[in-house]
């Protein structure tokens, strides 16, 4: 059985990939979030990521990345391999974005096996599978060129999926948000001890992005 780390952003793709890897029998040792030295994530606040790890009963390793980036990523992965005894790295990547897959290349340099459970699967099938697994997410950030700001804070449910399909059919966006059209945060799913709850704050803007500003995270009872 492979022993793996899950590269974790806190969104729907990370959660779905984690679930799929576990269904394949992969032992997940930890979640790993790569950050710059002074992170400020609009879509995936670090307090939420820590709360997700706690709800999933998995350790979270935050690894700081600096230039030169290839060397920094490989150094971080090598450190995790030594600490945790891993031989596999799981990512929630879905499709190529015009360049070789960054993490796959870093893994191959270190002799680690990359696992991409969602890779090149049909977008609609992925969202349907997400809903069938009762993974609960909300839209945490949208590009207002593709979606109106009032999508921020909305649940990713069957009705939202239908609305996304209509927009995708008109060429307005990628159904899974692969071009940065939207981002999500996971609140519940397989392996969560208890669901997380978020009381949305205000919707803030940064350029074309609209995002939840200072959402209040309500932690589950122990």
Automatic annotation (TrEMBL):
Membrane spanning stretches: none
InterPro entries hit by this protein: Diphthami_syn_dom, DPH6/MJ0570, Rossmann-like_a/b/a_fold
Gene3D superfamilies recorded: HUPs, putative n-type atp pyrophosphatase, domain 2
A molecular-function term among this protein's GO annotations: diphthine-ammonia ligase activity
Coiled coil location: none
Domain of life: Bacteria
Signal peptide limits: none
GO BP field: protein histidyl modification to diphthamide
Diphthamide synthase domain residues: 3-214
Pfam families: Diphthami_syn_2
Name the record gives this protein: Diphthamide synthase domain-containing protein
Organism for this UniProt entry: Aeromonas schubertii
């Amino acid at each position: 059985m492979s022993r793996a780390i899950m590269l974790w952003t806190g969104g729907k793709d990370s959660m779905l990939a984690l679930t799929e890897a576990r269904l394949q029998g992969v032992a997940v040792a930890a979640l790993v979030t790569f950050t710059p030295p002074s992170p400020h994530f609009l879509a995936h606040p670090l307090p939420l990521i820590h709360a997700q790890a706690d709800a999933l009963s998995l350790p979270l390793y935050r690894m700081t990345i600096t230039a030169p980036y290839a060397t920094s990523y490989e150094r971080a992965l090598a450190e995790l391999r030594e600490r945790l005894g891993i031989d596999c790295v799981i990512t929630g990547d879905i499709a190529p974005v015009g360049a070789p897959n960054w993490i796959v290349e870093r893994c191959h340099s270190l002799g680690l096996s990359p696992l991409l459970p969602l890779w090149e699967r049909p977008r609609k099938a992925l969202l349907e599978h997400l809903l069938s697994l009762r993974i609960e997410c909300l839209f945490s950030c949208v590009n207002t060129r593709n979606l109106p700001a009032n999508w921020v804070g909305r649940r990713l449910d069957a009705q939202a999926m239908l609305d996304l399909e209509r927009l995708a059919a008109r060429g307005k966006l990628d159904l899974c948000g692969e071009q940065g059209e939207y981002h999500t945060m996971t609140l519940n799913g397989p392996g969560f001890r208890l669901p997380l709850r978020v009381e949305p704050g205000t919707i803030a803007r940064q350029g074309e992005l609209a995002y939840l500003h200072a959402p209040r995270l309500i932690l589950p009872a122990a």
